Amino acid sequence: MNASSFLSRVEVALTQSDTPSVLVERALRGLRVWLADPKHSEDLAQLEFLLSKGRIDALIDAFYQVIPFGTGGRRGPVGIGPNRINPTTICSSVQGHAAYLSERFPGVQRSVVVAYDVRCFQDLRGVYDPSQPCSLRGLSSRDFAEMAAEVYAGNGIDVWMLPRGSQTWLSTPELSFAIRYLQASGGLNLSASHNPPDDNGAKVYNHHGGQEIPPFDAQLVDEVERVERIHRKPWDQAVASGRIKSLPDDLHQAYVALNTDLFAPASTTARVVFSPLHGTADTTVGDVLRAAGFEVILEPEQARADGAFPSVPFAAPNPEVSQSMNRAVELAKEVGADVVMACDPDADRLGVVVGTGDGWRALTGNEIAVLVTHARLLGDDIGPESVVMRTEVTTSLVSRIAHASGVQVVDHLLVGFKYIGDGIRALEEEGVFGNAEGSAADFVVGVEESHGVLLTPELRDKDAAGAALLLAGLASTEKNAGRTLLDTLEGIWRTHGRVANVLVSTVMRGASGRQFIDAIQDSLRSQPPVEIMGLSVLEIVDHQDPSGVHGPIRSSTDHASRNVLSYRLAGDARLTVRPSGTEPKTKVYAELVGRIDESESALSERCLALARAFVGDMLRRVKLPLPAWALEMSDLMAVEHRLDFAERVLPELLSRLEGGAELSSWLDSALIDYGRDARELVAPGVSAWCSLEATEIQKTKMAELFSLTGL
User: Fold this and answer.
1) What is the rounded CA–CA span in Å between residue 125 and residue 210?
2) For residue 670, what is the enclosing H or E element?
């Protein structure tokens, strides 16, 4: 086995595939460069395995590009190749950041804070040959963090981080706090947030404790792309020289005190079941709630740090996915709790489930934003100078509440909490941001629909702990009155109007998926829709338009961040579509303002139907026509898997139903590539298919296979 022979055979395989020639050429170039480096010699056996298994798409995707260094860093699957997270791509990211810091802070001693999450690469997707050596297997976020520290140290930059053997964590919000607390030049988090277990990444922070925005982010990207040589100082030498140092003992206490000093809950009677979803958040949300006097009951299995997220449905440790909180809800029923809370593994997103007399209901990110804004604006320190910020795709109900309270509102922000963080910086340094005037101290709340909240200018990234404390206090007040947070929401709707918001995502993976994502935006620009689900398009806003609210394009990164199209429709509706900046998906945000006599459920159903109608048209534009029922499968499923189920699995399943064959083991085998809990991912679409097309016998059998209800 040698690299030359392998490259010859892979070239034949690639050129015989249906892959566009430009991707083939890029992949071959990437393979040659990778295998020419002696430190990658061990990778050849695993690449041979991929070739022998016909995994041509995997080879192309791993080598056709260098994994993009976006505005916040790099994130994606751990694996072999330049388009994967591995020691090469992590260390080059850090080397570029080190060069950037040298440019930004010349002539002074620079320092960074390095954090990491609970991940450890185990190849749960089964990409590589388990019988062959794989240098990546067992590589943890802590391992990546130590590599990063060595690179910073090799470039003369001091590093603050937890010592080896530490039994605690530094979460995303506490990292933001630590950068400011230690007056560091920046920071780095080795984490993939809520992504699947086999993903990882490096997220870069600036000296404000937030992420760079244009044009500074473009300068950072340029430095990363210019990296030719990586400077590393071995760990033991860096520690001995004082270049790598342990975080101070008082840091965590100061972070907890910051949050508990923000609010003094009038009551702490609400019993809270909390799940960190196997991540870091018990050190933030858990510690803050306990310090404030709340009874916090941990979901025991998910309190255990484990980057495989073994007890989380779909391996999706994300409070946006309500099923991730199922175990905590069951515990809440047993112990008689009032509210369930959960966080993603890096502790910046907050999920909430509310107990009612009829059961339990998960709050959406928009509902959390509304409740937090409402509760914060009841504070004694609120005045006309106070500033509320929200991203544009977050519910407009936040703005209604803020305007009614007489405070300043900035609500045109692009997606990403970095824009809220930069808004606080602008108030601090310039005294103005958007249409708001004042200082950083006037900032009182910032929200985004993806379960992100910030309640203090002392951090510059979202923090679930402050939001959890505020909502636990509100839940206690309502409990004492015989009410719940859902009653609070109902009162807000009665006062300010009912607004429904829905997010529908379409996952499109790999190199071909990236092409589809780009083609969708191109098609929507060149052939804009004139109506959506019978509603006329009244106005289209292209955020890349230099004459718009965001002004001239400031950099290539600004151009990418502004790849957002918004539609104002008849009937008080709006839609926004954008590619995700951190995951291989297109996101569609829909909003409807309710009619006076319309129920919450009816409005939500209309809003979801609007979003799905747009997604259906969007996919048809790139020749990925999904049946209407397949649009109802879980958003966690890739489009390729939805098509596979509709075109391959379902027809064969129906044939086997008629033949009376044993189905359960066959079904699990047919769905194996879809990921963990595949039947549950497929079930909503199967239920929709049953309602539209199935016979009574088929409905019964499908219900048995997929645990469907209500058929």
Assistant:
1) 32
2) helix 664-670
Tokens coding 54: 């016909």
d(CA 507, CA 563): 17
Residue 632's identity, in one-letter code, is E
Q: Where are the alpha helices (DSSP H) in 433-555?
A: 464-480, 485-496, 510-526
The structure's pTM equals 0.95
CA dihedral 168, 172, 174, 176 (to 10 degrees): 150
CA angle 467, 499, 373 (to 5 degrees): 25
Strand 186-190 to 199-205 pairing: antiparallel
Q: Which two tokens stand for residue 454?
A: 């910030």
Q: Is 158 helix (H, G, I), strand (E, B) or coil?
A: strand
- The pLDDT mean for the chain works out to 94
Compute, in degrees rounded to 10, the torsion defined by CA atoms 308, 310, 315, 321.
-130
| Distance separating alpha carbons of residues 596 and 577, to the nearest angstrom | 28
Whole-number Å distance between alpha carbons of 62 and 57: 9
Structure tokens at 169: 């964590």
Contact status, residue 147 vs residue 159, Cβ threshold 8 Å: no
Q: Which two tokens stand for residue 392?
A: 């544009």
CA distance 645 to 453: 37
- Residue 477 CB partners (closer than 8 Å, separation 6+): 266, 267
Confidence of residue 624 (pLDDT cuts 50, 70, 90): very high
Name the token pair of 338.
């009032």
- Give the dihedral sign, CA 161/165/166/168: positive
Reduced to 3 states, what is the DSSP secondary structure of residue 180?
helix
User: Distance between CA atoms of 499 and 591, rounded to whole angstroms?
Assistant: 7
The span from the CA of 661 to the CA of 666, in Å, is 9
* Structure-block tokens of residue 176: 């933001």
Using alpha carbons, list the distances in angstroms from residue 178 to 200, 209, 248, 504: 22, 8, 10, 35
Query: How far apart are alpha carbons 90 and 141 in whole angstroms?
Result: 11
Helices (H) and strands (E) in the chain, counts: 25, 23
pLDDT tens for 296-342 read: 999 999 999 999 999 999 999 999 999 999 999 999 999 999 999 99
Output phi, psi for 651, to 5 deg: -55, -40
Rounded to the nearest 5°, which phi and psi values hold at 3?
A: -65, -40
CA-based nearest residue to 125, from 135, 133, 137: 137
Helices 3-15, 56-63: crossing angle, 10 deg rounding? 110
180 dihedral zone (left: phi>0; alpha: psi -120 to 50; beta):
alpha
Strand partners, 188: 114, 204
Query: DSSP label at 19?
Result: S
Work out whether strand 387-391 and strand 443-448 pair parallel, antiparallel, or are unpaired: parallel
* Residues 423/414, Cβ–Cβ less than 8 Å: no
- Taking phi over 0 as left and psi of -120 to 50 as alpha, with beta for the rest, 591 belongs to beta
- Residues β-bridged to residue 341: 274, 352
Any idea how long the chain is?
A: 711
222 by Cβ neighbours in 10 Å (0-12 / 13-18 / 19+) ranks as middle
Q: Cis peptide before 384, with omega less than 30 degrees from 0? A: no
Residue-wise pLDDT tens digits, 522-544: 999 999 999 999 999 999 999 99
Please report, for residues 214, 304, 462, 561, the alpha-carbon distance to residue 419 in angstroms, rounded to integers and kept in the order given: 10, 33, 11, 11
- Hey, which residues does 539 pair with through a beta bridge? 568
